[in-house]
Design goal:
This protein is an all-alpha fold. The protein is built from four helices and no strands. The chain has one domain: de novo design (two linked rop proteins). Helix 1 runs antiparallel to helix 2, helix 2 packs antiparallel against helix 3 and helix 3 runs antiparallel to helix 4.
Length: about 120
Amino acid sequence: MAFNAAMRIFEITKNFPQEETYSLTDQIRRSSRSVCSNISEAWRKRRYEAAFVSKLNEAESEAAETQTWLQFSFRCNYITQELFDDLYRAYDFIIGKLVSMIKKPAPWLLLRKNKP
């Protein structure tokens, strides 16, 4: 879901004004992609609860940052209300899932087997 949202953001930002290339466009692309990369890193660190939760926290923060950039995009009239609402809701859902995993990480963790 996060990957699909990031790809949608990539596609819509192709139409942002050139003067936004090194500010809004780069920032929203970076934060949306960072959600995905932090989730991937968390998944690989699921042997260690603290590391897993830490990366999920980073993903949550990046998702919230992406929502802020979406607000700027809308207020600057670069995206429609409908597109804003759709993407903002998608990130609300992603954040909700991440928060659930952060609160109860146990089902996602790889259990370490005790050595005899």
